[in-house]
Amino acid sequence: MSINLIDYGFTGADFLAAQEIIKDKKPDHLQVVRYIPARVIESQRDRFKVVCELGEVTAEIKGSFHHSNEEYPVVGDFVVIRYNELGSSLVDAVLPRRSKFSRVDFLGHAESYAKNVREQVSAANFDYVFIMSSLNHDFNLNRFSRYLTATLQGGGFPVFILTKADLVDDPTAMINDVRKIARDIPVITISNKTGFGIDELTPFLEPAKTIVFLGSSGVGKSSLLNYLAGKSLMEVKEIREDDSKGKHTTTFRQLFRLSSGALVIDTPGIRELGLWDSSEGISLAFAEVEELFSNCRFNDCSHTNEPSCAVLAALEDGSLSNEKWQNYLSQSKENAFVTDHSEYLRKKNEIGMSIARFSRELKKTPKHVK
After folding, report:
1. Surface-to-core class of residue 15, CB atoms within 10 Å of its CB (0-12 exposed, 13-18 middle, 19+ buried)
2. With contact defined as beta carbons under 8 Å apart, do 250 and 221 qualify?
3. pLDDT digits (tens, 9 = 90+) for 273-323
4. Rounded to whole angstroms, how far apart are CA atoms 40 and 94?
């Protein structure tokens, strides 16, 4: 079955990027092996499912991905594959990403965190991010704030989705709390059980546009996907009544195409989110906070006890909530830590690669020259 990649969000810019890579490749004269663009729709470790002009293909990654600085493919990526109709196809290159969702991946034990932080990309090339929380014990404004920062940093358009409206008599107070974080961002309350509010999602279900579902386990991501698809695409598991926590229904990332033509990336539940290189996302999410800084009397104001501090004045008159200020400080401190130590790791890796290159060149040197 042939597939038109345009239906999967493939753009003119993606086409040009793919051709730039393919022009240097050499297919075999029988056309058994050739290089073509594709989109990753499922990833499980080093094995992937991709869609391309020839249909759905299973592919592995070429070996150089394991020991180079190449972007590792994730669901949503547009890639160039080495298609082999007689054997295994390979993901050969990842095309430039328009957007991505990143989090911090800590390596090793707690005592070595400072030296072992790296970026973990979980989804790419999306247009909208449905930031989801259920109206039960899972409801957490701090988590909403962190998801918003990560979404804005990654380049997606955020939409707050409050699920399980059928479980509460009056969600007004919680909705108002979310709106204080959201500002102009849409806040939509839905029930997958009754269908309440789901029509409000229609403007975002555009053909060839990609949506990422983001939220912790048990918030109703799989249920919403099944509702929108009109059939069961994902297994739905019950949550624990005492704390509203759910089991991981999604264990790996997948991209689905709905009958509307919209594309949905369903991700495993994320409860704790380590922010990665989020300076821009923090500035966008807390724009009104950073605007206050220019009104402070001193340029180097620490916003703790200085006279004529605009932040302290806003906290006192209530125009800035203490919760939002503490969220800003927490995210800024975390981002500074990650930025500092990821830079340390980057320089360390560069030195290691230089030593490895020198070692390889030394081995090539004739013995009589040494």
Report:
1. middle
2. yes
3. 555 556 666 777 788 888 888 889 888 898 988 888 999 999 989 888 888
4. 10
Helix 141-154 and helix 322-364, axial crossing angle in degrees, nearest 10: 50
Give pLDDT tens digits for 185-236: 899 999 999 999 999 999 999 999 999 998 887 888 888 999 998 887 766 6
Which percentage of the chain shows pLDDT scores above 90? 36
Q: How many CB atoms lie within 10 A of CB 293?
A: 13
Q: Yes or no: say if 244 and 136 are a contact pair by the CB < 8 Å rule.
A: yes
- Nearest-angstrom CA–CA distance, 319 and 317: 6
Question: Can you tell me the distance from the alpha carbon of 94 to that of 73, in angstroms, rounded to the nearest whole number?
Answer: 6
Give the separation between CA 57 and CA 40, rounded to whole angstroms.
10
d(CA 341, CA 54): 44
335 to each of 142, 146, 303, 339, how far by Cα in Å?
16, 11, 19, 6
Neighbours of 129 (CB within 10 A): 28
Q: How many CB atoms lie within 10 A of CB 114?
A: 13
CA gap 16, 324 in Å, rounded: 43
With contact defined as beta carbons under 8 Å apart, do 154 and 99 qualify?
Answer: yes
Higher pLDDT, 136 or 42: 42
- Whether 81 and 59 have beta carbons less than 8 Å apart is answered as yes
How many CB atoms within 10 Å of residue 189? 20
pLDDT in tens, 106-137: 544 444 444 456 677 889 999 999 999 889 87
Instruction: Specify the amino acid at residue 90.
Output: L
Closest CA to 149 of 336, 326, 335: 335
- State whether the Cα torsion 315-319-320-321 is positive or negative: positive
Average pLDDT over residues 160-179: 90
Residue 150 is encoded by which pair of tokens? 């990560």
Give the integer Cα–Cα distance in Å for 190 and 135: 10
